[in-house]
Structure formats: C-alpha cells, structure tokens
Amino acid sequence: MTVTSTRWLAFCVWLSACVMGGAYESALAQSLPPKVVQWQGNASNQTVLQGYGILGEVARPGVFSSSDEVTLQRLIRAAGGLQPQASSSVRIIRAERGGQTLFFNPNGSDRLYPGDFVVVDRRLGPSPGGDAASPQASVIWIGLAGVSRFPVVVPIEPRDAQLGIIMEALGQSPELARSSRVMLPPGSVVPTSSNNAFLPSGTVIAIPTNLVVWGALPPGGFPEATPLADVLPVPPAPSLVQIPQLPLTVPGSGVSGAPGAQELPASRNTPFDQELNATPLPFSSVPVTETPANPTSLPAQGSRLETLVPVAPSPPVIDEPVAVTANLTANLSQQIESGEADIVGEMIPPAKPVSLSFWQLLGIAGTLASLVGVALGTRHYLDVGNTAATSLPSPASTSRISPEMFAAAERAQATSPQSLSAKVQRPEPIREERESVSPSASTRLETKESLADILNRRTPIETERVVLPESVSLSVAQTPTNLQYAIHSKHVNVANPPHLPADKLPPIDLKLEIDPPANVPVSRPHFAMKPPEPPIQAMVEIETAEVTSPAAARAQLDQKMPPLDESRFQSPIEKALARLQRGGRA
Amino acid sequence: MSIGLDLGCTEFRSLRYHGDRLLSRSCPAVMLVLDDIPKYRRILDRDQARYAIGDRQIFVLGEAALTWSRLFSQPITPLLPDGLLPQDDLLSRQILSVLFDAVLPASRHPRELCTVTIPGELLPVEQSPERDFFLHLVRLRGYEPQVIGQGHAIALAELNPQGFSGMGINLGASQSEFSLNRSGRELARCVIPYGFNELCGSSLIAEDPDEPALSKIPVGTITDFLVELLLEAGSRIGQHDGFRVLTHPVSLAVAGGLTELPHFEASFHRAWGRASWPIRIQGIKLGMEGRRTAARGCLIHAIWQSQPMADDLAVAA
User: How far is A396 from chain B (nearest CA, A)?
Assistant: First the structure.
C-alpha cells in the first residue's frame, strides 16, 4: 500500500475511535439512574391517566384509564373478554377517524393510544352460541368522542339511539349532528345524513371539539373511567417493586355511574362490588344488567378469553442501577406504609445499560475504517498502476529509486496532461449484453409509451370488425323460453317519460308475427331436385279469383304488382328480397 | 396487453392497444328472434348472416339483428333490458356470452388487466348477478377484471389536463351516471335510471343507422330531457355527502351516445343554464369519441393500474 493510503487508514482509525468513544460516553451518561425519585406530595393527584373506550361484543363495555401503556389484549381482558358472537377482528377508532381493523390475537401485544375506541363487532352469520341474547342486547352502546377528556361509552335504550336525541341529551344543537362524524359498524345501512335514523350498537360518534358548547353539557359530567389497575392487576416488573393496592377513596370511582347506582344497597356499594354497566346521568335510566364487576377480572362465562395469558417477566438485570433503584423503592415503600406519602410517586424506570463495551466498539470501528482504507488504497493502486505502465520505472528498478524520487515522479505525472487523461481511463466493467428482455419488461415499456399516446390522442381509434362464430347451437332450456313475454313485460312496466305528456307518447308497436306459425306444413323442401316449383307466395296478399295454373298465377301477379324498380333499393339484400317476393330466383 | 371493456345496456364496446394502433370493437347487445322456418334460413344463409339455432327458433346476433329487423319489420329483443341480466332465460345468457367473446379477444399473457364497466349498476356493490356473470366471462378470457363506473371512465378519458379531477357524466341509453373524481380516484357516484332511450320511444324495430331516431327528435325535447336529468342529478348530489366536500369549481366531462348529436353541445349548455346545481363547474368538455369514450377511459385505467402511478403522471404531464 502506498504512503498516502496508509496515512489515510491511520487517520480513519483514529477518527472512528474518537467518534465511537464520544458516543459511548454520552450513552453511558444517559443510562445512569436518576439520583432522586420524583413523587408528588399530598397536595394534588396529578397522575397522568389516559382513557381507553371499549364497546361492542365484550362482557363489560366501558371506559378504562391507566397511566401505563395499554395493549388491546389487556383492555379486552379488563372488559371481561369477548362474547361468543364476537367477530375475530376488532376496530380501533383513533383520533376521530376510522382507524384500523386488527385481527385479535390473544397472545399478541397491540399497543393502544390514549383516546382510542376499541369496537368489537358482531360476527356475521349465525352465532356459535345460538340465538341466545347477550346481556347487552336490550341496550345500544354508543361511543362519544370529543365531549370529554376521556372517551365516553354509554348504554342507551334502543328508542333513544337517534342522533338528534343524543345531541339533545348532551345539550347541543341538532346542527352539531351534521358536523359530527358517525362511524357505524360494518354492514350497517343507516342514512347518517338524517338525525332520526336509529343507530346500531357499536356506533362511535366523533363530535368536533371546537363546536361543542361546553357550558351546555350535562352538569353532572360524564362518568369517570375505571382504573385498569383495579380491574386487571399489572404484572410485576423485575425492576419495579410491587406497590400495594390502595383503597380507592375517590367517590364514584370504578362506577360508570348511574342514577340508580346511588340507590344500591350499602352492601353492594363498594368499589369491587359495584357494577360497571351503568347509565350516565344525562340519559334516561336503563335497566341495570346483571353482569357483576368482578375485581379479579375473571372473564365472563362464555367469553372467549377464559384464561389469562401470563406475561413472562423479563429476566432481572443484575447491574448497579437496579440495585440503586431497589434501595430507593424500598425506602419509598416504607414511607408509604408509614403514611408519609399518600400518593404513589411516579418513578422513572432505569434505562437499560449498554451491552457493548468500549473495546468492542473500538474494534468494530477499527474494522470498518480498515475496510475503507483498503478500498481507497486499492483504488489508488489501480490509478497509479495505469500511469506507471507508461512512465514509471520498471518494478525491478524501483528498489534503486529512493522514496523521495518516487514521490516526486508521482507528483510530476499527476500534473502532466498525459497523466490526467491516463487517470481518467479506468478499466471499464464488462457490460452484459441482454439479448432477450423479459415479457413483463417489454410489456411495461410498451404500455408506458402507449399511455402517453392515448392520453394525448396521438393514436387514432380504428374500428375492428366483430367476427361471430359461424354456427352457434344453443342448448334448449328446461322451461320454455318466454321471450315474447319478456317483450310484453317491458312495455307493461315502462314508466312514462316525465318530460312528455301522456297524450304525446309514441304508439307502441307490438307487431310480433308476420308469418303463420311454423306448424303450417311446407309443401316441398327447398333443397330437393324436382321439377320447377310453383312461384313462392308473396308476402303481400294477392286477391285472386281463380288460380288454375302457375302461369295464370304469375300473370295475375304481374298485373297486380307494379314493375320492380331496383333503383330504389340501396343494398343488394333488399333487391334480393324484392325479387324473392315477386317469386322465383333472380 | 391491457384492454378496456365498456358494457352498456344496448352495446358492448372494447378498446385495446395493438402495436401502435388502437383497435375498437363494438357489438349491439340485441338479438332478433325468428321462427325456424326454411325461408328465413335461406335468406340468412344467402346473406351469410350469423345466427344461432335453438328451441325451434333462429336467433340473429349482432349487427345482423339490426339489419334484418329493419328488413323483416321484426322487433329486436334486448339482451339486457334496463341493464338487468335475464335470470330465467338461459338462451339469452348464452347469446350474451357469444357476443361477449366476440367483443373481448382472448388475452395473450396470463392475468392481463381488463377494466370493465358493469351494465345497469345503480350502486357499486360487491356482488350482483350482472357483476358475477360478466366478471366470470372476463376471467374465462384470461383477464384479471377490474370494475369501474362509466362516469369514472369518462373522467379518466377526458380530464387529463385537469389532473383527472372533476366530474364525469355518461349519458347512456338506459341510465345516466355522474361521477366525482379526484386525481383519478372516484369519490362519489350518482346514477339515474334515465337514458336517451326514453326519447326514442318504445319502438322495438331497429332504427336505420343513416337516420337514427335521435336525430328526428326536436332540439327542445332533448333540452327538456337534459334539464330534467340535471335537476334530478342535482337534487341527489345535494344530498350526497361525497359531493358536499367540494369547495372549488370542478371540470365537467360529458360523453355517451347522446353526445354524438350535432346540436348536443348547444342543448347541454342551455340545459345547464336552466338547471341549478349545488356545485360550481369550471368548464364543460364533450367526449371526442362519443360512445367509445368510456371504453377509452377503461383502457387508460387498465394501463394505469399496471404501472406505478408516479411514472404515469409524469408521462401524462
């Protein structure tokens, strides 16, 4: 390798080492755990909860809240699992749009975003459980977006499931319904432009937030969301200490409150015994269903998700930051138990440590830099080799030439015009001659050009003659064809053209028969060899007194019928027909 | 080879690219039913007319049906009355398949694209007897079918300078279609089951091609028909959510059999002035190919689908 390429290689190695070292230092700095765990005091509850709505064919539709990341599978488990008649695909309505349709995989982990609506539609066709009505069959579940910080899922009586009534219950004008976006379940045929149409269960209405009159909303607000942790305990993470479940002290929590909920007996008025299916305040009372809210989140009988899939805990990382976190969380748990902290603090989980060491990174960088250096050196060698063949001394004599002289000779060649042109000349790669192009490629080339020609009308349209088969034999139908009936029916059912008055309608021409039916016996077949036949009977009825012989009949015909004027016939077919009518072959 | 196929209620039309030419085929979707008697056979054989035999009847097909209907003063039978496929008439369905095969040549390469319009389709549905029947025939010819509306096809054929954005109107024999498009994609469609056959009356005798029935209709009648059609379409468009999103004027492209009349443009402008539409129009353009405009749009769609859209827009620009 030349001196230049060697210097370049060394420079690349040094540079890569500096860059990689600096990157590692910065990554290492970020991986250090926080020195202080930030938690909130007794002043305010500022847990960042996000709401997720679920409705449709689940055991317990409603709204759930959580500050952690929520997956589709977790939300459905919290809602009690899928009903037997649920579809295998669920719709996720996100940001007031249609969202996406996912195939539900109980073992998967489909992340949801705050404000999402999960709609589980009913399976099309007969339900596997027969015609047994689901507990929510007597109510219509509607999702509302844009009227609250959280999604709103409410049960409504079927008679109230109209867009106008819903807007009235929300204290909004009916005009808001026209600006709202109604997302119906698939297969629903509901004219959404009408406020009186009955909406099916699983409908989500997205109301523009900027058009909502917030002061007109019901004074009681909307029911709060059920914390997901109450319904479905979060599986313990290895780097986090299990925080004990605190008794819920917020009134009404865990209940999508109904007016009737306040009337429940005291024995049932506990967070874990209260029912989740309830009616929000602005709507008329709906009979509370008998689906209890089980805090242990055992799925409802008959639901698909009957067994909870345990989340495999990640292996504990034995590292210094984890130990620090454990000490801090232990102190925090002690404080909680002692009552010094009422609210569970928000702990910043430690970042995962870098798996590669400094020397490993340095090795990778050095390898890459050496490859770059080798490539550059090879390229330079090839360039120099082209010029050395003509002017440089032979390899055998290079040993007698000092490096300074060699470098000087190189510089001289580099600046000379001949060397410049020689430098440009490089061995050209061998071009592969492609003899045959694949049919798809040729077609694409042909079609690419043709589209421009068609669009710009460079190619005129030529009419091609349609060639029908010479003989077509049609199979006889089992039932007799009623083509004439079809013709009659067309005229019977045709509507009067609206722009023409009835008295100006053209007369209907129903001339269907011009010849006697086919069962009239034909006297002689036309193809047999026989003596001259009598003239063919003309289409026009000829009044004849007596016809004694063919000659007399022809004479009468000539008398009655005017001479044939062939000039008035434009096509040879018409001429032939006219002659045929007059009898005999032309 | 891509091909565009426009299946109307009264005529089948196809258009394909062959080398450096555009070849068009058309065949009327009618038949003439005659009794199977030797006289008719003799006449038809002499004229070398194509006919089918079955059920003790003679079925004259294609253009010959129109010719002989005039000569015999016999009524023709539409194979797709009002665009509907006869369900109980197996003979008509077989004849339809014969005419279909004559209009649509067999594909040269497997899975070539064929963009087709379905006759009598008031709403784009997933399944219908007509759609199932004709798509099956297309697949039997070796093509991969794609269905678009006639209005959409007209927008593709005529609105190239406007970036394939605007409204395409097809004035067919049995129905009229209004299609709103944007960048080559159909946004909304409105079909009215009125066609220019309403103007021709109910005569079943085939008309003389030199003296079409439409040419005998007064200009005022055609204008009244267009006014009524545009009013009906305007009222439906005003209720359609897809058309209400328009905030700027759009271009209009009109094609169909009715546009072949020499005084159609004047009639349409007069009718437009009398009909109040809920959307603003930037300009009115008539299809230059008349009733073959939809087939041309289908061919453009078929070629377009077989290429990346970015390249084609660059080509079209």
Answer: 58
